[in-house]
Amino acid sequence: MPLERRDVEASLIKKGLLRSEGDHSVFTYHTLAGLKTSTWTKTSRGSRYKSLGDSLVKAMAKHCGLTTGQFKELVGCPLSQKEMEAILIRNGRINLGK
């Protein structure tokens, strides 16, 4: 099931990722305590990518360190920012220095 690019971008920003505009893509990076983590993804500005197909959603989920289902929950809002961070800590994508 495709996801709308604008919905994905808006949801990622709402969940604590920061937007960084480039020439061809919008990059979103997750930060925790003001530090950039290894969690990121990008979206194209191209008109062909207003809807993101399953293969792109899967790639974006992998960039973020989430399963495709978790990523869809993050975008759809059942998965909160705190729940996402707990998953990323558990999976070793965020190191709290312990």
Describe it.
The structure is a single chain. The protein has 98 residues and is an alpha+beta fold. The protein has one domain (3-90). It has 4 helices and 5 strands; from the N terminus they run E-H-E-E-E-E-H-H-H. It has helices spanning 5-14, 54-64, 68-76, 81-90, and strands at 3-4, 17-21, 25-32, 35-44, 51-52. A 3-stranded antiparallel sheet has the order 2-3-4. Helix 2 (54-64) crosses helix 3 (68-76). The model has no long low-confidence stretch (mean pLDDT 85).
A few lines on this structure:
The protein has 4 helices and 5 strands. It is an alpha+beta fold. The protein has one domain (3-90).
Keywords:
alpha+beta, single chain, globular, 5 strands, 41% helix, 98 residues, two-stranded antiparallel sheet, 3-stranded antiparallel beta sheet
SSE diagram, text form:
Elements: E1 3-4, H1 5-14, E2 17-21, E3 25-32, E4 35-44, E5 51-52, H2 54-64, H3 68-76, H4 81-90
Antiparallel strand pairs: 1-5, 2-3, 3-4
Helix pairs in contact: 2-3
Pattern of helices and strands: EHEEEEHHH
- Count of the domains: 1
Alpha-beta classification: alpha+beta
The side-by-side strand order for the widest beta sheet comes to 2-3-4
In angstroms, what is the radius of gyration? Answer: 13 Å
- Overall mean pLDDT score? 85
> Looking at the structure, what is the overall shape?
globular
- The termini sit apart by 39 Å
